[in-house]
Structure formats: structure tokens, C-alpha cells
Amino acid sequence: MMQKTITVVVITLFGAAILWFLGMNVTSGPALETQTFELEYLNAGAAAQIVDPYVFTDRTDGPGRISVAENLLTVRETRDNLERIGRLLERYDTPPPSVRLHFQVIGANGRSTTDSAIADVESVLRRLFQFRGYRLLTQAMLGGVEGSGMEQRMSSDGRAFTINAYINEVRNSGDSGVVHLEVQLFASGYGDVLQTSVNVRAGQTIVLGSTQPDPDGETLILTVRPEIVEN
Questions:
Q1: Helix axes 79-92, 44-51, angle to 10 degrees
Q2: What pLDDT shows up at residue 185?
């Protein structure tokens, strides 16, 4: 009688253990949902990199998934992570900031003169160069966004100039920002006289370079001041 009772107890406990184990298998792992986000401005590949920390593809009991197709980002994750991803994309999927570029072509000819039109940069010029005088030849304002190119033709004293600018990258953070530019200056009769690539802080005027296409003429100095305009 005692042996029979023990057998029943053992079988009962063993069966309960099996049911408990099966129950754990059925209910283990987080509840995952799939959501597709349509992007208006942000590249889908860049968006995938931004949200990657919230997609746990290495989770053993229910890995997350992420895929891209054109302007669509599809994510399989928990509901709370999907909500975080949605808020993150709202922050980054915005129109790119516009950039205004104020260019000045300055002539340095050795005359003992000053020009009030370039008073804000003349002290910088005198630290960089040994000319006695500087004057503004012409200036231009160009506008664009990251990844855009622009061209502006100008003239001064019967000479024609052309500025080509390309905005490679705009890094904007609060009240500050940096613009990465590629710039070319052409002068009539001489072609490409200055070419450079530079990072410039927003609101800062810098000297891009100088050149003297005509040995008997003025030395040309090109400056730029970028301004970031939020859209």
C-alpha cells in the first residue's frame, strides 16, 4: 500500500513538472508587433542606423527585426520599443536646414586704404597678409541645403567672377552648427583661380584663400560666412 502511494505521488509530481515546463515554453519571450514607418525627409538607411539600438536582433527568445524599402522602415519589436522608435523618428525626420552663404571677393593691391564694407574682416586680413590696402570687389549671397550645389556670377571693374559652391554636410546642434563646403572661384580670362574644401562654423567669416591670377593686378581674396536657417 505504501509503495503504491509513493508511485502515484511521483507520477503526479512528474506530470506537474512537465506541464510547468510546457507552460514556460508557451509563454516565454516578449510580445512582438510589426510596424512600418513612412519617412518624408530622412533616408531609410540612415533611419535604420538611428533606431538600431532599440531593435534587439540578438534576443534569443524573440529577436527584433528591421528592414528598409525606399522610404519605408519596418520594425518588429515590443510595443514600448516601437513607441520609442516612433518618437525618435519624429525628431529626426524633419526638413533639412537651409544654409545662406555670404561670399566676398576682396582685392588687395598694396594701396594704403581701408574699405568700410569689409570692416568686419579687415583686421583678420591684416593678420594674415602684408598688403597695405583692401577693398571689396564684389559679393554674393547663395542659398541651399545639404547635398546641393549652386553657382553665382558677379562682376567688378569690368572683370567677371563666378563662384561655385557645394554643401557637403550640415551639422546643426542648438544655437551652433558647422557647414562643410567645397568652393571654386573662377575669374574671366584665367579660369579656375581658387579651389578649396573647408568646415566653417555658422556665423563665422573665414578667409578661404588668396590668388593673384594677374602678376601685375590685384591679389584676390575670397571669404565666406555661412548662416544656418531652420525650416
A1: 130
A2: 96
